[in-house]
Write a structure and sequence with these properties.
alpha+beta, Alpha-Beta Plaits, disordered C terminus, single chain
Length: 249
């Protein structure tokens, strides 16, 4: 464990294409340092440079050189460096190793070793129901897309999970074909929401569906859940949305 006080900084200069027994030297050295308990190490990649052969290497947008200079740098106690230096010399091969005395004035705090209490696992197994809701992409409820409002309502009612599927071809009650074309996306594609949960919870939610879905089809079918389990997530800020995707069933 690195402590405040006198220490040693080690810099290892390599070529990006260098290998050791078929493995990139940088990866071999990083693995060695990690499993020997070195406090931390960083691999830095140069954008231009030359080495012992005096051949210039540089990176460009057109052609990325695989012979650019690399530097691996870490700070450790003198005792630890003396212990691992012979192996580092073997791994570095024709690379250069530089050792400098330095002082550590502040160390990074270690994560707490205390294991936080684990939340109980939520499980659903056995007979269940699948509810599929077929609507149009343009359908709305209270000013927002109906499919999004339904998902939000399902989440608020603690249903196990919902997935929204967007159809690429189909028709509905009005017998009008809806399809996606390469340069024209239909604005009223078929949307299907699929939910799996216990029959009791889905039946309890059905009045909300009937209120929100003015035109569409709601289908129930039997299912058997082989395994569904998760730990309750940490509380999130209200009205926070991470992106436009939904949790899978």
């Amino acid at each position: 464990m690195l402590t405040v006080g006198k220490a040693v900084k080690v810099s290892i200069y390599l070529s990006e294409g260098a290998t050791h027994r078929g493995v990139a030297v940088s990866s071999s050295i990083l693995d060695f340092l990690f499993y020997r308990g070195v406090s931390g190490a960083t691999v830095l990649k140069g954008v231009a440079g030359f080495g012992a052969e005096h051949r210039l290497h540089s990176a460009s947008f057109v052609e990325i050189s695989d012979q650019l200079p690399l530097k691996i740098e870490f700070i450790e106690s003198t005792e630890k460096v003396e212990e691992i230096l012979p192996k580092l010399e073997e791994l570095a091969g024709s690379g250069i190793i530089e050792v400098q005395e330095t002082s550590v004035v502040k160390t990074a705090p270690l994560a707490s070793n205390k294991t936080p209490p684990r939340a109980p696992v939520v499980k659903i197994e056995g007979p269940a129901k699948v509810m599929n809701i077929h609507i149009g992409e343009d359908d709305r409820w209270n000013g927002k897309p109906l499919y999004r409002a339904l998902v939000e309502a399902m989440r608020a009612n603690d249903l196990a999970g919902a997935t929204v599927y967007r159809g690429i071809l189909g028709y509905g009650a009005h017998r009008r074909i809806h399809r996606d074309k390469p340069f024209h996306l239909s604005h009223d594609a078929s949307i299907m929401l699929s939910v799996i949960d216990t029959e009791e919870k889905l039946r309890a939610f059905l009045p909300m569906v009937e209120q929100m879905v003015q035109e569409g089809i709601v289908v129930f079918s039997d299912a058997e859940v082989i395994k569904y389990s998760h730990r309750p997530a940490e509380a999130e800020p209200e009205n926070q949305e991470s992106d436009d995707s939904f949790d899978p069933v």
